[in-house]
């Protein structure tokens, strides 16, 4: 029979930096390193942590149309999303590797091949 193994899990409940992709990725990297330094083996971030969950954003939509302000908000939201795979994912992966942890991060993903924002 195998031995039971105990691992420390860090569940991050820090506020994301909405509309700030670079700041959000840096925050993930920093908190991942901190959690690894505290002995975590697995670090978990919330859904849509990078890119932000659009709670309360209507993007100016009504049936049959979208306002100019809503289009601008949508554009900012799309610009905050990341490509998977991409440089931001690589940076977060490197931070996890340096910290010696497994990392799960919710991100807003875009596909630059087919999406124009």
From TrEMBL:
GO molecular function terms noted in the UniProt entry: nitrilase activity
Alphabetized InterPro entries for the sequence: C-N_Hydrolase, C-N_Hydrolase_sf, Nitrilase/CN_hydratase_CS, Nitrilases_CHs
Domain CN hydrolase: 7-117
Pfam families: CN_hydrolase
Family, as annotated: Belongs to the carbon-nitrogen hydrolase superfamily. Nitrilase family.
Protein name, UniProt field: CN hydrolase domain-containing protein
């Amino acid at each position: 029979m195998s031995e039971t193994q105990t691992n420390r899990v860090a569940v991050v409940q820090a506020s994301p930096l909405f509309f700030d992709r670079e700041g959000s990725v840096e925050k993930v990297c920093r908190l991942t390193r901190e959690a690894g330094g505290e002995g975590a083996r697995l670090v978990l971030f919330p859904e849509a942590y990078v890119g932000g969950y659009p709670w309360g954003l209507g993007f100016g939509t009504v049936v049959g149309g979208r306002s100019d302000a809503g289009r601008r908000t949508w554009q900012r939201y799309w610009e905050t999303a990341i490509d998977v795979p991409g440089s931001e994912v690589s940076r977060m992966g490197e931070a996890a590797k340096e910290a010696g942890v497994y990392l799960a991060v919710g991100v807003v993903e875009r596909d630059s091949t087919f999406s124009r924002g």
